[in-house]
Amino acid sequence: MRSTLRSPFWGAALMAVLLALYIVLVGQRAVAFIATGIPIGIGIGVALFVVAAIGALLLVLEFRFGLRITRLGARLEAEGGAPADVVAVRPSGRPTREAADELFPRYKAAVESDPTDWRGWYRLGVVYDAAGDRKRARAAMREALTRARMTGGRSRSS
Description:
The chain has helices at about 10-35, 40-80, 95-115, 120-130, 135-150. With about 160 residues, it is mainly alpha-helical. Helix 1 (about 10-35) packs antiparallel against helix 2 (about 40-80), helix 2 (about 40-80) packs across helix 5 and helix 4 (about 120-130) runs antiparallel to helix 5 (about 135-150).
């Protein structure tokens, strides 16, 4: 059984709290620079506010993406469509890259055979993530979200 302390949620929550603290501290510095009344200080303060706003926006977008993917994964699991493949894992619980690479052709073929099915895209994203290819994993997951939204998440038999 997996420890709840090692859950990805807690890691994400800790990073979010740290980023929020950083944003607050940057905001305080921005106010201090603007309060100097010196043109260069005001410019630096405004720039710091922009950085803090971008950080806050990215934090919100990342959490929104994570929540949507988690819900989509729960729906796939509830349908009984979660991958049942058993692969070798490291002590951390992450699959080994070699094990993920062996599964990749099958999941890529499933997406190529039915590119409108969000389930295939989701599974492909999981395999990309296991292989350590975060960029492609996120792209596949975004495609899964788009396809699920377009089809309303209907099952294949609908």
